[in-house]
Structures are given as C-alpha cells and as structure tokens.
Amino acid sequence: MRPLISALVAGSVVLLGAGNASATPGVDITAVTLGQVTVPAGIFPVATDLVARRITIGPGGSTGWHFHDGPVFGVIAAGELTHPGPDCVAPIYRAGSFINEPAGEWNTHVGQNLGSEPVVLYVVYAPPAGDPLFRDAPAPECA
C-alpha cells in the first residue's frame, strides 16, 4: 500500500511543473484519507496540498458532478469506473488503469459505477493549499 501511495505522490510531483457536494450529491461513495502534505511554493507555482485517498464507489454509486481546483491523478484498483466529462462522452477505466483529471471548472465530470462490483480508486489530489478537494457542479445539459 505504501509503495502505491508513494508512487502516486511522486508521480504528482513529477507531472506537475474535501469539498462538499450539494447540487449533484454522490451516492454510495466513501473516501478515506491515507496521507496529506502541503508542499511550499517553489516545486509548484503556489503552495499545494497533496492528499492521497482511497475512494470506494458501490454498485450503482456515483461521485456526483464536480471539478477540481488542482489536478487529480489515480489508479483504478478494482472494478470499472465510467467517467463522463462535460461533453458526456463516457470512457471506462478498468482495474489497473491510470486516470488523470485536469484542473478547472471546464472539466466538470462524474465518476459512476455501473457495474455489479465496487470500484476502488487510489488518488492523489493536488489543489492549491487550503482549497477543497473538489467543488460541486451541476450536470451539463447533455447529461
């Protein structure tokens, strides 16, 4: 477990030069924070929180529509995550897949478990220090 978390955090640092959902709330989702560190400005343009979490979405569950102020990197550990974005195109990420969610309101998206087994993800959030991990957003018109 520690090597995976370390790899995700290190990957975030290399690749980069808890909000409260209300409009489209999550359903059957749990998140456990595994570790957190604030990195001072210098490595990143601004001070940045790196937060590692294990997220589980039950069958039929959803994250609710949201976006992030900083990028999110993750690995699907189990199940299949359906991941529609602002254009409602819905790629499917299977166990072993890497997922990258760019920052910004333009990238409003939802994570859905349309399968019969739980989806388990290990993710690292990298928002500016003090910002929430996600911001709730309304579903796009195409949803």
From TrEMBL:
UniProt signal peptide: 1-23
Keywords for the protein's UniProt record, in alphabetical order: Signal
Keyword Cell division: no
Gene3D superfamilies the record matches: Jelly Rolls (2.60.120.10)
Domain Cupin type-2: 54-125
UniProt entry tagged with the keyword DNA-binding: no
A Pfam entry, by short name: Cupin_2
Protein name: Cupin domain-containing protein
The organism of origin for this protein: Nocardia jiangsuensis
